[in-house]
Predict the structure.
Amino acid sequence: MRILFFIFAVLLAACSEGPPEPAFHAEGRPEWLSDWGMMAARDGRLVLADRVEPYDLNSALFTDHAGKLRTVWMPEAVSARYREGAVFDFPVGTVITKTFYYPVDGDGNVLRGDAAIIVSDRPETLDLSRVRLIETRLLIRRESGWVALPYVWNEDETDARLMRAGYSETLTLAEAGGTSRPINYLVPNVNQCAGCHATNNTTRDLLPIGLAARHINRDFDYAEGRENQIAHFIASGYLTGTPDIDQAPRAAVWNDPDQPLAARARAYLDINCAHCHNPVGPADTSGLHLNFDAPENANLGLCKPPIAAGPGSGGLRFDIVPGEPEQSIFIYRMASTRGDEMMPELGRSLAHEDGVTLIADWIASLEGDCG
């Protein structure tokens, strides 16, 4: 009897280490990330389940230099529909994940995950000996709409647990030259997820942000080889109704110096700010529109006085003063880390110096004056 029990236990352990299997939960809030089966820690790697497709963005939201592994999964026989200039229309059952991580050095300090540091020899996995997993956020498309759930990884990096009330942790970020600085890393609570994903202030419905053609129209190094992501989604049955890929919009890569400065700056503002600052967004009363197709006028901040910036104005008069970044509220707020001043106000505890430099260079290139 003991021998049979031992054999059963061995077989059960072997089965538990098999590939993860995706599961859609039409209701409730599963306690563990593994309950969804989108990914799992296997043999020292974070691996994706079958048909869980990784993707990346041309320009991404800054989150205290964290690296991000993004994925999307849909049930069999359903697809998203292409929408011009907007996020794709995803079917019920879609699960989108975003895993935040940092590369680590030999002393346990975290490194900049948004830098060109190799964290795996296979793009669809993460080598757990090279990274520190922090959290995985899920967006789930249910009959009632999108639901956001944040999961925080345990110390052993074997699973992540639902943290509806949010979570915070202080990390040490190792910088070039042997210096370091602390990061007060914040995982949003369930309600705070709406601060970015409720992009329409009237409906307050949650929506994905990055899965629009302009953001994902780029190549990705899949396990099978390098391929355009839109073409890959079409081939995998995940996307229908697309135009010719050559006609699809493509956002600039904000840190690619070979691309036009203005295009890079507008792409940066679009992905970092436009979920609030758009004509119908949560910041609609500000009159500041930073979406990719906003015209270059006062609504883009040119010579526009703030409506209710409070101390966030830094004593300055206009959001953007052409040719004078040091006189522009944009730069003051982007460089601040004070809670009542900084913009964006969620998702970061550090200032993004490279992003500040980009927007400052763009403002410096603008012609005109504010009288």
Q: What stands out?
A: The longest strand covers residues 131-142. The helical segments are 2-16, 194-197, 213-216, 229-235, 261-273, 329-335, 353-365. Residues 1-15 have pLDDT under 50 and may be disordered. The CA atoms of residues 61 and 272 lie 5 Å apart.
